[in-house]
Design a protein that fits this description.
Order of helices and strands: HHHHHHHHHHHHHHHHH
Structural class: mainly alpha
Length: 345
């Protein structure tokens, strides 16, 4: 009997170790998977179609792996701490401290906008206030170490430091504004049910680690099962835009003399999708064709913080009015950053 009980208690841990190894192996081979898929289709990455398909084959497993990993961890954490306790802890902080903490966390998480959505969902499911989660969602793709390192290498430390300060300010202030508007009722019903619900049912008796791991698996089934079609749709849109949008068209109206260049660049950037590493070479090319730095950076920030694929994915979590408020607040902040850069540099 004891031997059977021992095998039963070890089973979840063996499954966890195997799952982690598979997750790490898959994540480490994303590029190889995309390259192999492209070769199987007989396409070259140098073509528009090849680049679009490579993007889709790379980002789809990446975002799904991130979603599964983060939601599983949040499910385990949720078994320790109820949403009410999480909200109470954050409510005890001085005004804006939660937003500062979330925005700062975003700096050290090099996610694109779609990759940041899984952690955004995890924060919401753990009961983190809405405005705080938006501070993370904005800063994670827009102000991360990848963007800062590339900006430093391409344009110097002054540009990188100014971008860091202004980007964090946009994330913090936008999160504060959204939080003050009290729009929690514009979350989709299934998200609100998770936020106000009790911790996962762990069965009779004291909670054990096998029960907590099972709670994490159940969390993945519930949330990933609802979100994955929207993820695929969003990434597909981003792949098409990533492969086919020309640079020359964008450089034509980004000069410093046109006052309307900044809002136009933001409006143009919203339908597109890329991460900081992918869009910065485009920004460098635009600057070489005469684009103003502030206008080009405003375009970059809108691409990585307000992408259309991100909005499609968020639609499964947020109602349209909240998405519109989020986009409007962040767009205003990005335009302010663009005007400041153009004025001082």
């Amino acid at each position: 009997m004891s031997a059977v009980a021992g095998r039963t208690s070890l089973g979840p841990w063996v499954g966890l170790v195997l799952g982690v190894l598979l997750w790490l192996g898959a994540y480490a081979n994303l590029t190889a998977f995309a390259d192999a898929g492209l070769a199987l289709l007989g396409l070259e990455r140098s073509s528009h179609l090849g680049e679009a398909i490579h993007f889709f084959l790379y980002d789809t497993p990446k975002v799904l792996l991130l979603l599964v990993g983060v939601v599983f961890l949040m499910g385990v954490v949720h078994s320790f701490i109820s949403p009410e306790r999480t909200r109470a802890w954050l409510a005890g902080k001085p005004l804006g401290l939660g937003n500062v903490m979330a925005a700062s966390l975003g700096v050290v998480t090099p996610f694109c906008s779609c990759s940041a959505v899984p952690l955004f969902i995890g924060f919401l499911s753990a009961g983190v206030p809405l405005g705080v989660t938006f501070s993370f969602l904005i800063s994670a793709p827009m102000v991360n170490e990848v963007a800062l390192a590339l900006l430093f290498g391409l344009f110097g430390w002054q540009v990188a430091a100014l971008y860091l300060g202004l980007g964090l300010a946009v994330a913090i202030v936008a999160g504060l504004v959204i939080g003050k508007l009290g729009m929690e009722h514009h979350l989709e019903d299934w998200v609100r049910a998770i936020r106000v619900g009790a911790p996962p049912v762990l069965g009779d008796g004291p909670p054990t680690w096998p029960k907590r791991l099972r709670a994490g698996v159940d969390h993945v089934r519930e949330i990933v099962g609802r979100v994955w079609p929207w993820l695929l749709a969003g990434i597909a849109v981003g792949a098409g835009i990533h492969g086919f949008v020309p640079e020359d068209f964008m450089a034509a109206f980004m000069g410093k003399d046109q006052w309307w260049g900044v809002p136009a660049a933001v409006a143009l950037g919203v339908p597109m999708y890329s991460n900081a590493a992918g869009i910065l070479p485009v920004i460098e090319a635009l600057l070489g064709k005469g684009a103003a730095l502030g206008t080009a950076l405003a375009f970059m920030m809108s691409v990585i913080a307000l992408s259309l694929p991100e909005m499609i994915i968020l639609r499964k979590v947020l109602k349209p009015r909240l998405i519109a408020v989020f986009a409007a607040v962040v767009a205003c902040g990005i335009m302010l950053v663009g005007f400041v850069f153009n004025a001082v540099l």
